[in-house]
Amino acid sequence: MNKAISILETSIAKALSELYSISNAPIPIQKTRSEFEGDYTLTTFAYTKETKKKPEEIGNEIGNYLVKNNPNISAFNIVKGFLNISFSDAYWCNYLTEVISEKYTGFKKQNSTGRTVLLEYSSPNTNKPLHLGHIRNHLLGWSVAEILKANGHKVIKTNIVNDRGIHICKSMLAWQKWGNGETPESSGMKGDHLVGKYYVEFDKAYKKEINTLVEKGTGKEEAEKKAPLIIEAQEMLQKWEKGNKDVVALWKTMNSWVYEGFDVTYKTVGVDFDKVYYESETYIKGKDIVADGLAKGVFVKKEDGSVRIDLTADGLDEKVVLRSDGTSVYITQDLGTAVLRFEDYPDLNQAIYTVGNEQDYHFKVLFIILDKLGYKWAKECYHLSYGMVELPEGKMKSREGTVVDADDLLEEMFTTSKQTTAELGKVEGFSESELEELYRTIGLGALKYFMLKVDPKKKMLFDPKESIDFNGHTGPFIQYTHARIKSILRKAKEQNIPFTISKDLNTINILERDLIKFIYEFETIVEESGKAYSPALIANFVYELTKTFSRYYHDHSILKEENETVRQFRLALIEQCALIISNGMHLLGIKVPEKM
Fold this sequence. Notes:
Structural class: alpha/beta
Number of domains: 3
CATH class of the largest domain: Alpha Beta
CATH superfamily of the largest domain: HUPs
Strand order of the largest sheet: 7-6-5-11-12
Distance between the termini: 37 Å
Low-confidence stretches: 395-401
Largest sheet: 5 strands, parallel
Number of helices: 21
Radius of gyration: 29 Å
Shape: globular
Helix content: 55-70%
Strand content: 5-15%
Mean pLDDT: 93
């Protein structure tokens, strides 16, 4: 809980008791809106009935009581039924002194809550390379994991690789037919790109076969089922599930190419995992669970041999959990994965799935089935649903090869970063290797911040050029401001100026109060973002802090301040601002340079 709000609640409760004999009443406090003077606001409308007084009169009486009886509170003002309360300059200065002495970070110690959370993200398919949509998933999942750690939870980061199924067989079959033994080494392509190439080739050939059948009078839906290529792919899947040596060997070879490619991209983006699960293993567990559920009457076997569950009573529909030919579907392996995770981590309290909102229905079904199967932890499963990423050109489609490849996007970000940084003349005093590292830091910072500043639930439009703007609501603006603060602090150290707060300093200006309040509120924002699973709260908080510092830097001298006490205070203040910016950006997976 925010310490200032706690102080206010205690004082207001006493005021209500002594002034009006009111006890156990709600005390609605919120941050004062920026257009009004004050730190926190009390809504007084709730007390009109018992006091038989107007809201303004109640506000005036409570305000006078607070100023008289609490030395931390210096002033108040009333706007209709809203009492705006100001804490004293001394209170904020004392707080900043405490922060410095305690080496405050805004983070709790990991596992201090005793709660263990498993967070899944990435979930790639081994039939195509990672793309722009995966990037949002990676950044959101990694960031939420770090935010949950900062809230004191033990976090296990996992990945579930979709390495089996009909879509994988499509790439395998296409390579078998048209690959001529091509490998990543012989082609010079990353392995995931090479396999993705054959997934697109399959789709092109498959569509031609469908069109040919349609031209001969077959209905489109029937043509999609009867096209020779799809029948061959289905036969390959059945052979794989039966352990056919040749099919399994090809599957292992092509998947190994993909994993090597994925690892390069993961390293570049800066994400990692504590454990990786593979659907080629979890689907077996899923089939056992289906068999057990069938015996218990949770599932039913239909005349065509498929196994299903009727969820119409739950407002959903009938769901297939095993095909008529005995092969598994997505939900089969998801059942197996869920159960395996809780077996692997007996102390697990919650499982979070970071998956796009196109799968909202799927996860409703999954969690209900797990509950019906009797798993008590089913209610602790949560779908972290997020909106799709689109480009100015529209939606991406993997099968048609119109996706924005993750590796290409990253290279574009680095190139754009290099051009923009050079044009602005922010490259002096760097070696070539330092410059390359700076371009990558700025490029990744731009990409990550642009992705994470948007509420996860919202669909977003990504524009690479807009994301790299040193003066906008962007990662580079924040990075540059952090570097500016660090430059001031380095110069102060060179001049042997201490960063201290004198006990005699009891007066600060409005922007200094605002900056201290940002430091004060950081832990609350981290807590709120953890509850909402939303890095956007932190991203926008850090931006507002950065913007406030920029105004402060513009309006007030720091190193050139003539009053020694004030100069030392300002250095101590901005050092803490830099720390909060750095810690906040860390939770987004963004590095902040020491110089730019």
